[in-house]
């Protein structure tokens, strides 16, 4: 019987037991054998040795290099490495999508950068879930941010509407659920940081929000990802793409089973825009 391998870093797997179980149930529903691979300490060849021959590899590690390596060895990987690479690099997201969808201007941030006027938003290039994102109001805060941030960073102007965004869950290249996220105490609206969430029917999304989702999907084969949309001066803008995207809001506020929908869309090869 064919297998489906789910790749996780240990720390993420420990926080996502519910989703992992849902993936196992979905995989079994298609007559396949699920397997969880913790990639900590494993080289690409060692992961390949475990996953070789699998019908599908579900990559939840944010490691685009690993995804690309497995693809080159003939394995089907979801999300594809192109999505993983783009979504987990905020500067690359901007560079690849700025001519397709509206976004805040984005610039590399280093000690030598010509700075935007204070205040501005600073983000680690590879950050996720709002962690490490800071509102920089003066030189001291900038120095502290740079001292505490490992790797590359970006800076962006502050949008006129902060502490509020719309996460649109995309499965098989189509929007399937949306959550309005808000925070009364933080300019970041992330649910994992204490923000509130409210389900919004897809039919109630604005045309400008749907245009952003469609624009992103026209450039990237999103199998299962989050498209986060903010507003600036009343206009919808792409904030970022989340891959792998969390599912807690879906479990709490909807009956959506993203694991089942994800596995079904990939195995049945019914992704919008073409065949996997």
Can you describe what's shown?
- This protein is of the alpha+beta class.
- The chain has three domains: 3-78, Rossmann fold, CATH 3.40.50; 107-156, Dna Ligase, domain 1, CATH 3.30.1490; 160-267, ATP-grasp fold, B domain (D-amino Acid Aminotransferase, Chain A, domain 1).
- Helices cover 33% and strands 26% of the residues.
- It is built from ten helices and 13 strands.
- It has helices at 10-15, 17-29, 44-51, 64-72, 81-87, 90-97, 139-148, 207-219, 248-253, 258-267, and strands at residues 3-8, 33-38, 56-59, 77-78, 107-108, 120-124, 134-136, 153-156, 161-171, 174-182, 196-199, 224-232, 235-242.
- The strands form three sheets. Strands 11-10-9-12-13 form a five-stranded antiparallel sheet. A four-stranded parallel sheet has the order 2-1-3-4, with helices on both faces. It has a four-stranded antiparallel sheet with strand order 5-8-6-7, with helices on one face.
- Helix 2 (17-29) crosses helix 10.
- The two termini are 22 Å apart.
- Residues 270-276 have low confidence and may be disordered.
């Amino acid at each position: 019987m064919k297998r489906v391998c789910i790749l996780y870093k240990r720390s993420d797997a420990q926080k996502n037991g519910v989703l992992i179980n849902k993936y196992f149930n979905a995989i079994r529903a298609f007559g396949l054998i699920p397997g969880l691979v913790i990639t900590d300490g494993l080289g690409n060849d060692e992961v390949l040795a475990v996953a070789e021959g699998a019908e599908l590899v579900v990559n939840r590690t944010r490691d685009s290099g690993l995804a690309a390596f497995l693809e080159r060895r003939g394995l089907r990987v979801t999300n594809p490495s192109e999505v993983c690479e783009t979504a987990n690099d905020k500067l690359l997201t901007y560079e690849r999508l700025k001519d397709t969808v509206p976004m805040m201007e984005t610039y590399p941030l280093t000690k030598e950068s010509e700075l935007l006027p204070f205040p501005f938003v600073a983000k680690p290039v590879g950050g996720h879930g709002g962690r490490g994102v800071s509102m920089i109001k003066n030189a001291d805060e900038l120095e502290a941010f740079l001292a505490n941030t490992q790797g590359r960073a970006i800076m962006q102007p502050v949008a006129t509407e902060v502490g509020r965004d719309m996460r649109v869950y995309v499965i098989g290249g189509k929007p399937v659920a949306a959550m309005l996220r808000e925070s009364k105490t933080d300019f970041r609206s992330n649910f994992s940081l204490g923000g509130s969430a409210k389900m919004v029917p897809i039919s109630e999304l604005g045309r400008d929000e749907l245009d952003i989702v469609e624009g992103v999907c026209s450039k990237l084969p999103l199998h299962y990802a989050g498209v986060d949309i903010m507003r600036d001066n009343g206009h919808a803008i792409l904030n970022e793409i989340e891959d792998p995207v969390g599912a807690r809001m879906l479990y709490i506020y909807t009956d959506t089973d993203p694991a089942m929908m994800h596995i079904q869309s990939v195995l049945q090869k019914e992704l919008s825009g073409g065949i996997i």
